[in-house]
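[#protein-structures] MJ: dropping GntR family transcriptional regulator here for a structure pass
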Amino acid sequence: MDITQKIKEHIVNGELPRGVPLRQAELSARYGVSRIPIRDALLSLRAEGWLAPHGKAGVMIPALNWKEAEDLCLMRAELECLLFEMAFDNIQEENVKEARGFLIDLDHENLTLVGRGELNWQFHNALYQAANRPTLQRVVEGLNKQAVRYLGFQYGPLGYRSISQDQHEVLLRLIESKNKQAALNYLRQHIEQAGKLLSEYLKEISY
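AK: finished. structure tokens for GntR family transcriptional regulator:
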């Protein structure tokens, strides 16, 4: 696991503090590497939305909050459904097979939260890539990467893992049956249901 992935895991697991500046020297000592890979990792994490500016040149881990979670859900629902609609008629048997392979991988018990987030994106990406719309796909990928920050809630207290897996399988079956409208509706429901559950939970605990 590279430094960027390790920092992501420690952010999701709450091992790094939120709202305080991250010091390159401290991180360098923590992870046993020089400052150069730490600097590169922080730049990458900031670009992906995992870190926010702090002071003139520093960065910090931003707080999680229901408004951001809801915004990510709203954007994902619109853009992913658009991308999926563009892809649907071009999805081939090998795309479905690839997606089902990622679904099987997601059932492994020893996955990290960040690992699950990446596999979840790879599942969806296997279907969306048939659209051949790389610019839109990059935006959708960015939203998914930011949403990984909230997986600790979805796979923890919300217990959404098995529900998500079942919904993924239903989506694949709808694709195999060539039921385009039902598949589009189901994808939107899949995204919105998880987003609503998450944002309502965050409101309750005042994030």
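MJ: nice. DSSP finds ten helices and two strands in the chain.
AK: one more thing. The chain has two domains: 3-61, 66-206.
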